[in-house]
Amino acid sequence: MAAALNWVMKDGMGQLGGVIFASQLGKGGMDFDHWRGKIRKLTGSGTGGPKDRGNFQRGTADTNPKRWRMVAALALDLSTLLEICTPAMGPQWFLPMASIANVGKNVGFLAASASRAAIHQSLTMGGSLVDTPSSEESPKPAKATAAKSSNLGDVTAKAGSQAIVASLLGTAVGILLSRTFCSDHGTAGILAGFVVLSFIHQVCTYKAVKAVPLLSLDRHRLHIILSSYMNEQSNGAGCAPVLTPAQVAEKESFLPLLRPDDSSRWLTVGASLTDICPSGAAGLKELLLPKPSPSVSSIDESGAFDPQQHEKYLLRVHPTISAAKGSGAVQLTFFKGATDTDLLRGMYHAYAAHSFMQNDDDDHAVVTESSLGSHICSETHMLMSSQMPTFVQHLREAGWQVGGGFVNVECGSSYRLHIQ
Fold it and tell me: What is the mean pLDDT of residues 19-24?
């Protein structure tokens, strides 16, 4: 009875851990940076420098399936390793170690199945979905419709058959190794063989996932595109090219627990109102950016603010005058109801401001940080407004899906503002 109860508890804890993981998967996992920032505020240990203002997007299984596919592979291998080591720890450790291993396996299975759909979709003809472009003048978001050439079912079936063949071959290799090399060395031989095969598994998974070109835009893929685009423009290229999904796939970083790029050091997406506007409502008006439409006033006859004529985001630039050239930080927060086009405008503006700070050679010794930040924000906003239509056109021509929810740059703890 006690043995049966142990097995029930082991399986039950594993399934419970899987349910808890699934509840966090839609938010991109546990946002440790969010809670670390809260702890710093409570303890007063934050320095307030540019590094403390940045964050990064881990992404969900839809926006960043490659990272979660690697999480699944690591979770499965580490859980199996723990099971192999459990007999050497003694019987008193069987239940906790086996329960943790079961939790890891459930996490791996859930992460693999959740990320599989987005990966299969990117491998279909036309990416499975095609988007109907939305104009800059129309507030209506782009619509996504099923592509006539979609072969998602065929791709899923072939992926399943390949998985079955790989499983059969793996079973055969495992039996061969267990009857030869591993059986002569006991647990140590099994452990050595498992470590070698797990390393091969991780490398093959990484190579396979890296070869998949995703057509949607998350923060990291957009960082690669915008960084290359800004560099080409700063080098004097009149018509800078936009990287294709295949080119971005070669440069993507999706290893778990690692920050994918250096934008996490200077860019915060989804900052709270108290962070981006410490002075409260009094300083909010200074951060509002009117759209360049001279024929329409952003202030109605009664003097009230009309949010429809302003950008659907707030952007605050924090240049560091006394530090070396290129230092500084940018905070970006979107309004509720911001569309994919608004997300692209805000990100383009943020990267234009960062590029401005990197390439600015003027001496600002007599200028305050606040006034310089407002100047950079204003100058780069005009630059973004003039270049944005061309940039979006280049994105579509390169094969990226823009509109219909294919752009996602915020993390699970990002805030959105609402002005009534």
Answer: 80
